[in-house]
Specification:
Elements (H helix, E strand, L loop, with lengths): L2 H15 L11 E3 L8 E3 L1 H5 L7 H11 L5 E7 L3 E6 L1 H14 L12 E6 L10 H20 L2 E8 L4 H17 L14 H14 L8 H25 L6 E4 H5 L3 H9 L4 E4 L2 E4 L10 E4 L8 H13 L4 E7 L5 H10 L8 E6 L2 E5 L2 E3 L11 H8 L1 H9 L7 E4 H4 L7 H18 L15 H22 L3 H21 L8 H23 L10
Parallel strand pairs: 5-6, 5-11, 6-7, 11-12, 13-15
Antiparallel strand pairs: 1-2, 2-4, 3-4, 8-9, 9-10, 13-14
Length: 541
């Protein structure tokens, strides 16, 4: 039973009797900070009194007098009009039965009947995924997990930019390495890709085909480039699989550009919003959200990156999605308003596309920054990071702070096996509960009417009841760090409960069976919460 939702509905009914209609999200119910102030509190009387031309305290009196008191032990008014609710123990304890019965579905929201497309990572297939990509992957995948669990129909999508200059540079870099392997005295240009994986791919190509493609023709160059791109993509898929990130759809820029589709989109859909100036074509994005009109076709007739991207976003919307979410690096800040403006030209709301910008990551080891460079080969890739600290630590640390905040990833801390390491602290809380339940597997759990009363039990119980609300809030705000914060709070309460309460006392089976029921419920919620950020919940540590 969702006690907060129940209290909201009771308050809304009281306000309606006073002649005021309010939405359920307008009523705020919070956990009381101290037992003296009850279990839950609301500021509803303070918030709505002016709309009824009443003093807050008077409205609070009316709510307390008229509210349905089923499940409520006591109600008190505090200060200028805060209302504190003391719930009956059976009402509080009912959450345990709900959690155990629903198990890994506890906290899952009702079907929203809304389709969401989340595009993330979308790294160019020109080299290893670095830690910046890793943070985007961790945040993007966690957003998908949260939206899915909150009741949305989620599609994960990866967009391959395989038609731009960087793919051409990949081909040139491979061509040089291929020729070097066959004895040609040729230097790799400075603006090429210098990482060792280019040599590895060229070597593999040379072992397969020998000198067959050395003749300088467009067909040979394109074949080598395609080979290299597929090798890089396969490596990306392997690394993302290791990182527990998978995609439902992979879209190619070349497919968007097929059959002159991009030009067709410009000519038919943006005819009234485009103009030519000095031989280049611009969109009137300043008519919407942008600070200047954007060039989409250059003087030489080639597209800027924006026009194929517009066609791609319209392609996604044509597939029936209600919401598009792009998870991008922080350097895409100027991208937001221009892309929203383009979609608004087609009659979409500015909220149809949401763009989450992920700030940069610094790797810190022994107090010093570990530099990284994709082109020189120096630095740490996603795979190397996972091999050094583990997938769980990497995934947790990347979402531990708001995506809009810079992140210093402490490699030493990620390897600690103590409470200073937040992922270890959370996983150990889960493992502790698993061990207790294993030791007491002969004791029947009291999930129907558990006897729980001390502060450690009640605080943990209230935290478990909060989980569904945290899921919805983290999903709607696209903020996985809120789930990470919840996990730390839950872990702290589990450790306190474990330390301060005797969980197995065979001389007092009534208390033991109740506490074991609470332990099982807490174990379930911790596992569900960790899964929403892609972190495992081990039974032993």
């Amino acid at each position: 039973m969702n006690i907060e939702l129940l209290l909201k509905e009771k308050i809304i009914k009281c306000l309606k009797e006073e002649g005021l209609e309010v939405e359920i999200n307008d009523v705020i119910i919070e956990n009381s900070k101290t037992p003296d102030h009850g279990d839950y509190a609301t500021n509803a009387a303070l918030k709505f009194a002016s709309r009824l031309h009443l003093a807050p305290r008077l409205l609070a009196d009316k709510i307390v007098s008229n509210i349905d008191k089923d499940g409520i032990e006591k109600i008190e008014i505090a200060g200028p009009g805060f209302i504190n609710f003391f719930m009956k123990k059976d009402m509080m304890n009912s959450v345990i039965e709900k959690i155990i019965n629903e198990d890994n579905n506890y906290g899952r929201g009702e079907n929203k009947n809304l389709k969401v497309n989340v595009e993330f990572v979308s790294a160019n297939p020109t080299g290893d995924l670095h830690v910046g990509h890793a943070r985007i992957a961790a945040v993007g995948d966690s957003i998908c997990r949260l939206y899915d669990f909150a009741g949305y129909d989620v599609t994960r999508e990866y967009y391959v930019n395989n038609a731009g200059n960087q793919i051409y540079t990949l081909g040139l870099s491979l061509d040089v390495r291929y020729r070097q392997l066959n004895g040609e005295k040729i230097e790799l240009p400075d603006d090429s890709y210098h990482a060792h994986d280019i040599i590895d791919i060229a070597t593999k190509f040379n072992n397969l085909y020998g000198t067959k493609y050395l003749e300088k023709t467009k067909e040979n160059f394109d074949f080598l480039t395609k080979f290299g791109m597929e090798e890089e993509l396969n490596k990306i898929w392997r690394d993302l699989d290791l990182f527990r990130v998978h995609f439902d759809i992979v879209s190619l820029e070349t497919d968007i550009r097929k059959n002159n589709h991009v030009q067709e989109v410009l000519d038919t859909k943006f005819k009234d919003y485009s103009y030519v100036q000095d031989g280049a074509t611009f969109l009137k994005t300043t008519a919407f959200l942008d600070d200047k009109d954007r060039c989409v076709v250059k003087k030489d007739g080639s597209y800027t990156y924006m026009m194929p991207d517009i066609a791609y976003h319209l392609n996604k919307l044509s597939r029936g999605y209600d919401l598009l979410i792009d998870v991008l690096g922080a350097d895409h800040h100027g991208y937001i308003n221009r892309m929203k403006s383009a979609l608004m030209m087609q009659g979409y709301s500015k909220d149809t596309l949401e763009i989450e910008l992920i700030q940069i990551v610094r790797l810190i080891k022994d107090g010093e920054e570990v530099k990284m460079s994709k082109r020189t080969g120096a630095g740490i890739s996603l795979r190397e990071l996972c091999e050094e600290v583990g997938v769980d630590a990497a995934r947790y640390f990347f979402v531990s702070r708001a995506a809009s905040a810079h992140l210093d990833f402490d490699l030493n801390l990620a390897l600690e096996h103590n409470s200073s390491n937040p992922v270890y602290y959370a996983q150990y809380a889960h493992a502790r509960l698993c061990k207790v339940l294993e030791l007491a597997n002969d004791i029947e759990l009291n999930i129907k009417n558990p006897k729980l009363s001390n502060k450690y039990e009640i605080e943990l119980l209230k935290c478990l009841g909060d989980f569904p609300k945290v899921v919805q809030n983290a999903a709607i705000k696209r903020a996985p760090h809120l789930m990470a914060n919840y996990i730390q709070e839950l872990a702290s309460l589990i450790h306190s409960f474990y330390t301060e309460c005797r969980l197995i006392d065979r001389e007092n089976i009534e208390i033991t069976s109740s506490r074991l029921a609470l332990a099982k419920a807490a174990k379930i919620v911790m596992k569900n919460a960790l899964n929403l950020i892609g972190v495992s919940a081990p039974k032993n540590m």
